[in-house]
Amino acid sequence: MASMLLALLENEGYQHITLVDRGAAAIEPAGQHDVILLDNQLPDIAGIDLLPRLLAFPDPPSVIMVTGEGNEELAANALRLGAEDYLVKGPKLLEALPGLVERARRNRLLRSAKAQVEHELVRAERLAAIGEMTVTLHHELNNPLMGALAEVELLLAGGTLSQEQRGGLQVVRDQMLRMRDIVKRAGDLQRADSTDYLTGLSMISLGGQDPAPAVHRGRAVLCVPDRELARISALLLRHAGFRVDRIQTPPEAAQEAARLDTTLVVLSVPGSGDDPLLGFGASPHRAYALVLLVSGDRAGADSAGADLVLTLPFDPAEFTQEVLAAMPASPPRSPSRAGG
């Protein structure tokens, strides 16, 4: 059985595959793999008992439990303990294996993308707090600083100071100007990167900021009810240069799609039924690309005239590339400029 599974996975393109026949031998290499097929019938330990140990790594692998036929209770326990899925030994095992492994791989990538989304949210909250602090600095520090600097300039303009007094005031003025520049850099801050200050302490870096993305691909209308999937999709599209607006329903998305600045519409749909687009009217002469995310049977979605149909879960590593390939052959849009 192991030889058949190994050959099948190699034919599917998986290259880094490790085969072990005991639970004790699985622990060390487990943290170096993305997906583990775990048979419950091991000679030294039951797979269900080994499962928590395999999931204890900081970045645990996705585990697919391999069970015997009629052992639904074991499969349910494995899912409760954190297994990604289960595979039943039987005539359909080889047929089901590639799809399960690929789904586990994509779900793992989506979890990684979700972690990145959470990082972006924390970063946004941090920047918002910095913005509030900048306003405080201008009010509480910058205004009196400018008043004091004006008094120093008046003293330096007078002719009654000794050379020593004048030198001291010039040092004071230079330091006050430096403080003014620090407040200004804080006001211009677009990131919240930290740098080491002392052992165990960090401070926000006020150094140079990254330039804004050079590519502007227009506006993306995103209609995805699943909150986590919507956040991941929005993050990937923003990184690709789109300005993303989330819309609640397909009919509302159709109205938003009619705007001239819309270059992409992404809809999450069931993919089947009498109305596979759930009320979204896709114009055959549209100027935007239409991408459908399908959670079930995609037959209806394939016939709906979309530029791209992706089955969920999609691969976040390939999502942006596939969407950009579906875009109309036109140059990226730049921000509009006023003028004649």
Give a brief rundown of this model.
The protein is α/β, with parallel strands linked by helices and 340 residues long.
Folded structure, characterized:
The protein has helices at 2-11, 23-30, 47-54, 72-81, 93-157, 163-187, 227-239, 250-257, 299-302, 316-326; strands at 35-39, 62-67, 85-88, 194-198, 201-204, 219-223, 243-246, 262-269, 289-294, 308-311. The protein has 340 residues and is an alpha/beta fold. The chain has three domains: 2-90, Response regulator (Rossmann fold, 3-Layer(aba) Sandwich), CATH 3.40.50; 124-204, Helix Hairpins; 219-326, Response regulator (Rossmann fold, 3-Layer(aba) Sandwich), CATH 3.40.50.2300. Strands 7-6-8-9-10 form a five-stranded parallel sheet, with helices on both faces. The protein has a three-stranded parallel sheet with strand order 1-2-3, sandwiched between helices. A two-stranded antiparallel sheet has the order 4-5. The model is unreliable at 209-213 and 331-340 (pLDDT under 50).
Q: Structural class, from secondary structure content?
A: alpha/beta
Tell me which oligomeric state these chains represent: single chain
Rounded to the nearest angstrom, the radius of gyration is 29 Å
State the low-pLDDT regions, or none.
209-213, 331-340
The rounded distance between the terminal residues' Cα atoms is 73 Å
Taking the sheet with the most strands, its summary is: 5 strands, parallel
Shape: flat
Number of domains: 3
Q: What is the fold named in CATH at topology level of the largest domain?
A: Rossmann fold
| CATH C-level category of the largest domain | Alpha Beta
Helical residue percent? Answer: 40-55%
Average residue-wise pLDDT: 80
List the total number of helices. Answer: 10
